[in-house]
What we know:
6-stranded parallel beta sheet
Amino acid sequence: xxxxxxxxxxxxxxxxxxxxxxxxxxxxxxxxxxxxxxxxxxxxxxxxxxxxxxxxxxxxxxxxxxxxxxxxxxxxxxxxxxxxxxxxxxxxxxxxxxxxxxxxxxxxxxxxxxxxxxxxxxxxxxxxxxxxxxxxxxxxxxxxxxxxxxxxxxxxxxxxxxxxxxxxxxxxxxxxxxxxxxxxxxxxxxxxxxxxxxxxxxxxxxxxxxxxxxxxxxxxxxxxxxxxxxxxxxxxxxxxxxxxxxxxxxxxxxxxxxxxxxxxxxxxxxxxxxxxxxxxxx
Length: 282
């Protein structure tokens, strides 16, 4: 008998996961392991639960999809300390650990404790009316047709710089390869704790990215001159704050636990995803 008693499944809403789910169900049945899924996503042979109950019941959460599905799985597992295994379906992502043909061997390795845990930090975003967590990034974006996003960055309670831009992205090291990277931000090792601030298409004199320690308090003040903004957390629109709103962002180290089996490194995945084939010859 291994260490897993229940496996929770988080599935991509538009990918065909039936074959992969069948592999997991067969593997689990042979070991008397319960398989649970989220109501509305599961087939009849799998116990359907709410997202909250799945995180509490499962000893292992398996994400079936890409980076977006993995981020959803991390949110579901958050608070319960449940490790998450990412299984890539389709396009290569940064976060999934294995491809589908490796799944059964990976499950056996995990059940036999032959794996390591890579912790990932999260960002707590707090405004007057809500508090949410991000594992990739939070972005304050100007609404189409509106004036630029005018944001004052306050560090440790003191104003530091003002950005005028299409958006301001605050990313974890995990999220440095997402929206921040597309805006010209650097790749940051996921082993680093901290937060990365990147302006998107800045129109201000200061147009550089910032990287802060996880211990430094960050607040974003939406200035009176700002156009209408939306706040996206890991790609989900969560708020439309008014000018004058103060958004506090703090780092929670080790907010998520990702399973690694030693198949690839972060830099190998980045190299494949970004198609980095080496430096150009001179």
